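User: Modeling request: complex.
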Amino acid sequence: MTLDAFLFQVLNGLSSASGLFLIAAGLSLIFGVTRIVNLAHGSLYMLGTYIAYTFATKIGGVTGFWGGIVATALIVGALGAAIEFVLLRRIYRAPELFQLLATFALVLVINDFALWLWGPADLLGPRAPGFRGAVEILGRRLPSYDLFLIVIGPLVLLALHLTLTRTRFGRLIRAATQDREMVGALGVNQAVLFTSVFALGAALAGLGGALQIAREPANLATDLIALGDAFVVVVVGGMGSIPGAYLAAVIIAEVKALCIGIGTVDFGFVTINFSKFTLVAEFLVMAIVLIARPYGLLGKAQGAVRSIAEPEEPIRPATPLLKAFGVAVLAVLVCLPLLAQSSPYVLVLGIDVLIAVIFAASLHFIMGPGGMHSFGHAAYFGLGAYGAALLVKWLAWPMGAALIAAPLLALAGALLFGWFAVRLSGVYLAMLTLAFAQIVWAAVFQWEGFTGGSNGVIGVWPPPPFDKSWVYFLLTLVLAVAAVLLLRRFLFAPFGYAMRAGRDSPLRAEAIGIDVKRVHWLGFAMAGLVCGVAGGLFAFAKGSISPETIHINRSIDGLVMVLLGGVQTLTGPIAGASMFALLQDTVMRQTEYWRALMGAIILLLVLTFPQGIVGAFASLWRKVGGRT
Amino acid sequence: MKPTRHMLALATALACAFAAPAFAQDTIKIGELNSYKAQPAFLEPYKRGMELALEEVNGKGGVLGKKLELIIRDDGANPGEAVRVAEELVTREGVVMLTGTFLSNIGLAVTNFAGQKKVFFLASEPLTDKITWADGNKYTYRLRASTYMQTAMLMPAAIAANAKRWAIVYPNYEYGQSAAATFKDMLKKAQPGAEIVTEQAPPIGKVDAGAVAQAIDDAKPDAIFNVLFGADLTKFVREGNTRGVFKNRTVVSLLSGEPEYLDPLGEETPVGWIATGYPWDKIKTPEHVAFLTAYQKKFNDYPRLGSIVGYTTIKSIAAGIAKANSTDTEKLVEAFKGLSVSSPFGTFSYRASDHQATMGAYVGKLALEKGKGTMTDIKYIDGASVLPNDADTKKLRPAAD
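Assistant: Request completed. Predicted assembly structure:
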């Protein structure tokens, strides 16, 4: 690459950075003040692209394009305010992270809404009036719209910076980011503040989307892509830091542009195509930054959030009633093969539900009692699944040995990643786990020769007698029961108490001699181990696996299962996983707009059971005077 | 789009599924699974194509005296889900065969499932060569021209360009990788002097179009082989046009002439690219005109390539069952060997050697007419003409039969 080419790629990087920054800034603001992990942020961005496209094509011309961009930002901002006002406000008192569930439902609903309103085809907007052509720089042609974007990013940064530092509204935002209860105690109307911050964040997302229509088509996949990008930028820059978000956007965009610019390099002994690294570049950057600077480049340690949720009840051993219920459920499950002779599909579904139960229970183990919100739990599921499948494929191991090796591989991964992750807390821990999961995903995706790349590994079927679904179902049942009981046993052992002590009060736990990091690290590893069992079972149940087993969607599914059931209860993940798996099976069969229906059902559950389903029943039980 | 009608159709299908066995015996159930939510641009027209074919088949009294009944499921764009859905279709709905799938990894997972559970599977759309070759099995057939075939169809044009320096750009997953590998392989054989000066492999759906277009321009190629499609293609074309990357360069491009990917480009359509595609407004064969008329009459919209694939899938199934004179799996497997099917693209057959259909594709130059993308100088390339002969094919299918 010549120097000119290098400098020119730097310019390309800067224009991409502006786009990244605009999506990320809003997310950062919203998280900083409300502590909501807004999964719907990418959906707001996507709506921005569609709405701006509509303005630009229906009205057209300068008004339609530039006026449309402004109007889009306002409309999406208003929508953000409405989301906060109608939905999120009702669930601020729910356990931490629960709001994530509501925003997840919004992702599903908004995507189907866009499909319904704008149709399935990609929609490319017109070129920007006034910026149609290119300018000659360094003997190359740079689209003038890219120059415009290079300028607009820092301008928005400046405007936000001035708002945050020079206005009363900005002071309130900064104060709330540091200590929102104190802001409330000083007489500031938090409700209004939250709504306005949400509206501002949403408007920025809408603006970011609207500005992209001259460069890329509005399409239904942008919501999750934009969300992923935004999270990485926000975390690398430091949650709540707007300049940090810009800096992070520039770094990530430049790394990518340079990887592309370098292209294929022959090192003599090995040829590397650097353009392939763009798949994983941002997550590598994120992992490195978080390991070196736990709060991101310009972030500060999060102010303590004195939770406004009701304090969590300590967990208690199962009552005789619950035990009896458990035995009854188990008895039904054991008899299921007999009951299901006329409809063998019940067993197939049962296997899926049980695998989901193991997955969710292992995630809950670190999320609930451990207080470590892993956003990358699919990594251990995937390590287990790939471990088992690859041992069968390359070394022709029998199923039994592969199923034993699967959790051990997941354990190894969890020990490695956990060692770094437990050094962080809160959302930074969540994001580091996500980064690790993405790195594993990218490695599996990229390593065509060994893992089968995007097609994955096929032909991993269980040998007789396990090829009959009732035998495999019983195997899965045995392992699921063992996994759940093992995790419970751990929680009621001194180890479990130490883990919870470390979650609730790290300083006091340290003071009485608990090595909190070590305990959390082992807890993390334990969860990985059990999750690996689920992965191994999954591989043989499906006969084939592909990188989807490690994809972020699976991690999010896990979070949804745990939150749906109730993060503060031990039976919650079991109920949540069963519910989610059955719901998915039913809903996907019933309707064309199944995602919207799924989202609507989750929204309904969220509003009805803000502590999760089991959590709600448990507190109801307590209210009527019973004991859990 | 008319959601109510689809829902009604689905509700009817469901109602039939739960209806009394006496009624169920009057129909032949076909299970179809696809990534409807993940790939709506291709699959909504595909579904319409299936509906049209179903109407035609059943309007003539169905097959073996029974009506065909389609049970459609979303596979969640995830192989794990897809296998569960396939099991559900087979065990709960009692379908006689499976069809569908779009993404290669899902197509392969269902292919493998079909082999394991001995279920007949007609893969309609997934392009990966492995479905019929490396991982092909006795129970799986495939309709759509594979990655290898599509690339081979473009080779004559690529070689005619007589370019010394080639740039390649492809989405970084199996489809892109194998298209690029096939292209390099064939280019090397036909034109040993040609050199690949840059190879860009952006992640699918996330191309940094400006940087990629620039890197290609900086490598100063004489010609470009493009495998990008969908939103990636749209972004790449706009950046490339603005930056003058395609000026005075031959561009050979896979799938770009398909309305699904060409239409979003609109006025941005890169004129002169040589591409495979489906110029629905230019094909004047009687078979196609009949299809086009019926389709436009029913849906008041023009067909996309997905419509052709969906339509032909159902027609293949009807022909296969009629030839087998049974819905028995083994008999279907036999019947599809050499099965001849008439389609909007003319008559083609399913090869006995690798279970690949010989339905071809159109190759032509992208053009801009009235602000919309289309193709000129179109030529139909028969799939049979680009496939290896039976002896070579046998070597490619180690796992089959």
